[in-house]
Amino acid sequence: MATAATAATAASVAPGTQLPRHAMATETPQPSEVTTLPSGETAYAWKLMASERAHIAQMLSVDVSEITLDASYMDRERDECRTCGKYMGLDDLVHNALYGGIHGGPFILDVLQNGPRGQSPAHVVFCSRCVTKHEHARYWAVQWI
Ligand SMILES: [Zn+2]
Q1: Which of 25, 102, 110, 117 is deepest in the core (most CB within 10 A)?
Q2: What confidence tens digit (pLDDT) does each residue in 6-23 have?
Q3: In a domain? residue 44
Q4: How far apart are the first and last CA of the chain?
């Protein structure tokens, strides 16, 4: 579990007003499958959508074939952005980390390909299309499949 302090840190390093807006068309996702991971955690499988995969590849300047994961395993269902209607995705987390100066592209790509390194802090999430701050911070599972 993340503390209020880690959430506050994430918010302070990812000011939404400084993030770029990406005018991407996106699909409406299917409801996430709720699953129990080998670690015992309950997780919502955010199955990567084609638009989400393409957006991530574009941001990381890699071929879409390098974005190999099928889904990310998150603590909650995706929320719909209350401003523009885009559903929260892994592309938003990548966008926020990259353009917020939190992680570099090579690190992010490694996590996407090889899974997260230990406990995720709370990630305050800004919509990558309109930079509205989502109400709920997100965690991802300690272990991916
Ligand atoms: Zn939005």
Answers
A1: 102
A2: 443 444 444 556 899 999
A3: yes
A4: 20
